[in-house]
Fold each of these.
Amino acid sequence: MSLGGWLREQLFERRIVLVTGRLDDDAAAKAAAALLALDARGDRPIELHLDSSDSALGAAFVLIDMADTLRSALRVFCRGQIGGPAIGVIAAADHRAAAPHARFHLSQPTARFAGTPEEIAAQSRQQQELLWKLYGRLARRTGRPAEEIAEDMRRGRYLDAREALDYGLIDAIMAAR
């Protein structure tokens, strides 16, 4: 077994799922499968360690929807930089914590549409509907108006861990040893 396989197995036994790098469809599918498998093994809390500075809107909703269906409590630990729609994954967790030096980038995803003008218009409408679902989810979790969150994401606002706590995005900052 490779070191990577051994490490994943050790983390899985401890009910820890890592999501690092770009949160795309493939990464979301793998993380969702791991969450589902861990949820089927018992009801102890599952930890999702998140470090994704870039993410696709649809991929984030795969994990958001999965979090909504878990019987086990989901605890998200944010480290590094979390940006774009991955911010919504944080809002889907039962408990949200961050490393002291974690950074949060409230930013909208980039989207590329192809097809006829009608198809592009339909894709754009769908993207906007999903974005407003994301803003609504964040608004419910942070206690802030969806319009404020939309504006912060349009502007590309950055938050450090303390600011994210004050914003209502996380529940706690993990103390240094």
Note: The chain has one domain: 3-173.
Amino acid sequence: MSEHDPDDQRRALLQSAAGLLLAQAALPAGATPAAPERKGVGQPGDFDFLNGHWKIRHRRYKTDVKQWDTFEGEASCWSILKGIASIEELRIPARDFSGTGIRLLDVKNRLWHDYWVNGKSGVLTPPGQTGVFDNGVGTFGAEDTDDGKPIKVRGVWDRITPTSCRWFQGVSKDGGKTWDDNWFMDWTRA
């Protein structure tokens, strides 16, 4: 396999994703993501807007120093399985960081499941978020805990155009009444 051959790189990425999905199937029932409260409307191709190569400007809030940290990154994305799966390879060279986003459409329930794998551990991070797109905005959420207390987490895709989009995440400690949005990623097509 050539280090610079995009087809070889894509094939290796997809093989890794397949292995991770098998690992997800083996997770205990309590580790599966919570479904959103409304009925799904997800459909094949919802993530096709991400296909291609991107430059990304990150702005992440560092709670330990109470300030925003900004840095650059890049991503390559593919839709597979006729649009019911989307694979993202995220790279942040200045931070020596990489990871993979895996988004899968549960066709029967019409819900997207969004999973993350840190490139250093190679472990699928539960719980994955579930969600749908509504009026051009994709909202994904999950139940989690912070210091033993229940929280809600969400990720939102918005401002989607042919050449740009935005993703941001937030945390709610009051059952979703208020949100602390703590990471913004502004994507520009490379």
Note: The helical segments are 6-25.
Amino acid sequence: MAQPKKHLEKKVCLITGASGRVGKSIALAMAAKGYAVCFTYIHSEREAAATLKELRIMSPESEMVKCDVASVKSLQEMFRFLRRQFGRLEVLITTASNFYPTPLPKVSEKEWDSLVDTNLKGTFFTMQFAALWMAEQAAKNPSELFRIITLSDVAAELVWRHHAPYTVSKLGIQHLTKIFAKEFAPAILVNSIAPGTVLLNPKSDAKHKSDILKKIPLGRIGEPEDIVKAVDFLESSTYITGHILNVDGGRLLY
């Protein structure tokens, strides 16, 4: 195995699915905090390359890697790359996710697999590979704390019509978060951020936005910065694990 780059006295953060939107904002914030960031992408290589260019302004050691998180083989290859390139991993943030409507009773096997394999299976195996590696590092340095932060969704606690596979996958992520927190304590702190509505689809019309705002007590759509602040809080906290942090403007009150 090739030796990791000599620069890596710097801590490393892996973020899945961070070429754009909220994932990109988290990646830039972690680079600004001094991490070497490695992020995955699957389809949008041009967008990923643009994100990497921005990251390297703050953190020249940062990398991107193509990875289909729904494939265990692809994840294994990605982690082999991480070990060769960086030789260490302190923080994992899972943002890779699929989202689209699937009305009952016509959900296809292909739709189920597309949503559940990416969102739940992919998150599980990413967490498992990362936690095993972090545990190896913790055995050598017992004073070090490691962190896994999953992104779930407040939809895990709601009953959304037309989104059964998606909401089930997000509820599963929250349960996995608690299981991993219990299993890998005290060396690895494992928490989840459950966003409400953040960054409306550009195709959304005025009525759709108005209907959503009626269900948000704080009266606004969330911004990526709201999620970034939650990540920053959990990354710096030392006495929180197994927690689901809702960042939803009060959406769950409805």
Note: The first helix runs from residue 21 to 32.
